[in-house]
Amino acid sequence: MLTFRQLFDQQSSTYTYLLADPGAREAVLIDPVFEQARRDAALVSELGLKLAWTLETHVHADHVTGAWLHKQRLGSRIALSAASGAQGADRLLAPGDRVEFGRRALEARATPGHTSGCMTFVLDDRTMAFTGDALLIRGCGRTDFQQGSPHALFRSVCEQVFSLPESCLIYPAHDYRGLTASSVGEERMFNPRLGGQILEDDFAGYMNNLGLAHPKQMDVAVPANLRCGRVDSAAAGGENAEWAPLTYTFSGIWEVQPDWLEEHLQAVQIVAVREPEEFNGVLGHVPGARLIPLGSLAAQASALTKDRPIVTVCRSGARSAQASVLLRQAGFDKVANLAGGMLRWRAQRFAVEGGKD
Ligand SMILES: N[C@@H](CCC(=O)N[C@@H](CS)C(=O)NCC(=O)O)C(=O)O
Ligand SMILES: [Fe+2]
User: Helix, strand or coil for residue 303?
Assistant: First the structure.
């Protein structure tokens, strides 16, 4: 049994992989991206998992890792290759090491060449390999920085990846065309750089003449990743400056819980986005709520103030989630949806204006 998700960061075209043992509820994230830490944490939480490890296939040059942020927020441990030269990991991996999550495990294989510290993580049953930038789908990582070497990369891929079963799926760290997965058999046959009958020297000639521009974020990303994505505490403190203990959902909505709202009714603007007959109907409304049906919200948003945070409310929390997105688009920063809407509010027996028991 395995829970598996492939996640994408559009900015850097990076894939992050979530793997978990659904029985033990333990998860690992391979190559998390700093800017996606909130999304990834929401998914881990919604699937009822505990993040045990974040793994890096290498010190990335094009984005900052989310490893340190996850360690701060979720208590996960950071693992990457000892050969990466990174500081601040909880575990430095050697070739052949196993990283366990519940009853499942990933085997770390050294696949240098794109960088000197690259690793490929192979699932215990050899059905999946996470190749980082060593082997991409019909491509491979460049070899012109971070101690890259086409000769090393050629041997890594041939010996450590192409030796896996033909059916073993390949999941890379990037794809720039939207391709999501391949297999060992497919890449051995069709990879234009490393497949077919190509020889090491042909490959080196190819790689030494790519003439690519350096990644845009390289000067920021490499030093940050050599610290496993640690940022100084002042920058990290931004989270605590929130106006309420908000939760972020995988669907991209900021939510506030009914018990917090009940204690802060005066501090916020409560916007009920249902229709008038519902607002005055059996469920009633949160005391002090102002009625602006969802259909009129865009037109009437200017009646709201930016001085006080806004909590949107509807029957179940669905229309009000949409309302919160709309208000953020209209320039309101402090907006959250009331989780569970009036149904949960009433189930928790909080005060209601109007309505019937
Ligand atoms: N335009 C991208 C460049 C990305 C890039 O160079 N990616 C590296 C991986 S870190 C690579 O090996 N790319 C392979 C290729 O483009 O052939 C950026 O600025 O981030
Ligand atoms: Fe890379």
Answer: helix
